[in-house]
Amino acid sequence: MYLFNQKYWEKLANKDWLVNGDRHSPFVHQTMKARKTRSKFMKLKDTLGVWVDESSQIESMFVNEFISKFKSA
User: Fold this and answer.
1) With 60 as the cut, is the pLDDT of residue 67 above it?
2) CB–CB of 52/35 below 8 Å?
């Protein structure tokens, strides 16, 4: 029964996207703008426990973390 309900609600949730999503419409732009805003990092806590909220510092934190994890030994 659970699988049936899950599929039903997935279809219902995608209805608006299926109707308006394939068109180059304001709906698509609004959806993408909301997703971009929602997935944006506003502040991060560094290794010392201090909150960093400047975009350049956040960027350097990501780069440094990536380098430290994936550098060859």
Assistant:
1) yes
2) no
